[in-house]
Amino acid sequence: MLTSLQQAVHKAYVKTVEKVTPTLSTSKFLEEGVLTPEEFVQAGDLLTDKCQTWTWESGDPSRNVSYLPKEKQFLLTRNVPCYNRVRTLEDESKAAKADEIKIEDDGEDSWVAPQPVGNQDDVDDEKVDISSLKIDDKKPNTTTTTTTAKSTTTNNNDEDEDEDEDGEIPDLDDFQDDNIIEEEDPAVLSKNNKSTTTTNNNNSESKVEDNDNILRTRTYDISITYDKYYQTPRVWLFGYDENRKPLKPEEIFEDISEDHAHKTVTIDSHPHLGISFAYIHPCRHAAVMKKLVDRQSENGKEPRVDQYLFLFLKFISVVIPTIEYDFTLEFDT
């Protein structure tokens, strides 16, 4: 992990080299997993066409780069939901592994079964008393009667059997409107919900109590720029809390995979907007993309440079697994 001083020195070095390094003009997509600016635009055009939550942006005109069209300086998608913190997923994953019970040990590929989840008292109540199993030989068909800790009355059993024997499957046309229960969607604004306003006598300020049943969550603006030094896309993140207030850096890291927070993800000024964003360092992007392209070739698929960003966003989701941006395109890797 680089120290703050090392990061500052590296940034200064990269910016200096970028100024004197010529822009990549020959395609090395298949050989190295990198892009020319023209290929970046081509891939961005397909992304904005297939996933219309993504748009091209021009940014601050004073920060435009000459090797990209003025109206296509970077890609942006806004208000991307983030419902959970990464630690929640990691805790659930650890709990799932802890709850696994081996039922057949054949080495690495042994079968496992999940442990029962919930209140242990409820599980104990449902255990079957094997000593109470009885087989009734009087009926033509042999049936097994099981007694559990939860008691039921004979009358209820008789009524259920009568209904099973005499009842018929009703026709859908026989249902009346008053038999249909309409469940309420918690995300829909209720007609009966009202906002109440109270006045603070000390400072004469008003306070509004929200009761609108609308799910509030963190959201992110995600942008993709072209990195001239690494010749790959670079992802930038700007987050908002449930009240649309900008997230602090330490809060953003709560939505970054533990393996990447403070390591491959750091804070810097956005090259086209001039404000602080979190970004995913692109030093390994080309190597990962080369592996994905090679895998496509091995599977008999012809890699397409215009689909680059779909592959790219697919592996970036490992770094930000709870930020639900759109990168949906049906193709095999």
List its salient traits.
333 residues; alpha+beta; six-stranded antiparallel beta sheet; two-stranded antiparallel ribbon; 12 strands; globular
Percent in strands:
15-25%
Shape: globular
Instruction: Please give the alpha-carbon distance between the first and last residues.
Output: 31 Å
Note the main sheet.
6 strands, antiparallel
The structural class is alpha+beta
Mean of all residue-level pLDDT scores: 75
Radius of gyration: 30 Å
Strand neighbour order, sheet with most strands: 1-2-9-10-12-11
Q: Could you give the count of β-strands?
A: 12
**Share of helix, binned:** 25-40%
Number of helices: 9
Order of secondary-structure elements? HHHEEHEEHEEHEEEEHEEHH
Uncertain ranges: 98-120, 122-154, 175-182, 185-209
Characterization of the model:
The strands form four sheets. Strands 1-2-9-10-12-11 form a six-stranded antiparallel beta sheet, covered by helices on one side. The protein has a two-stranded antiparallel sheet with strand order 3-4. It is α+β, with helices and mostly antiparallel strands. It is 28% helix and 20% strand. It has nine helices and twelve strands.
